Amino acid sequence: MRSVVKKLLSCGTKSYASSRTLALPEESRVRIYVCKDRETQCKLEVDTSLLNHPMLEDLLRLSQEEFGHSYEGALRIACDIDVFIKLINLFKSQKH
């Protein structure tokens, strides 16, 4: 939970720049921007294993329709941040 809180601190900030945000994600993790628009985007890192979850695959397909194939170093998902975090927590609880 602490890592989610740290990631949420960068939500909605345009000029958030530090060596931590520019670094590559840890091994077996992927960077995802969750947002309805660029002004409210939030950068998160999630386990790559979650990318195979059918609901997340559907979200990625829907986001592809909205944002296209082009991306800048991270996946982009069109979703409310609160909903996305609840989904990720649900996926993790189902995994155990």
UniProtKB/TrEMBL annotation:
Pfam families: Auxin_inducible (PF02519). Keywords: Developmental protein, Growth regulation. It comes from the Eukaryota. Belongs to the ARG7 family. PANTHER family: AUXIN-INDUCED PROTEIN-LIKE-RELATED, SAUR-LIKE AUXIN-RESPONSIVE PROTEIN FAMILY. This is Auxin-responsive protein SAUR71.
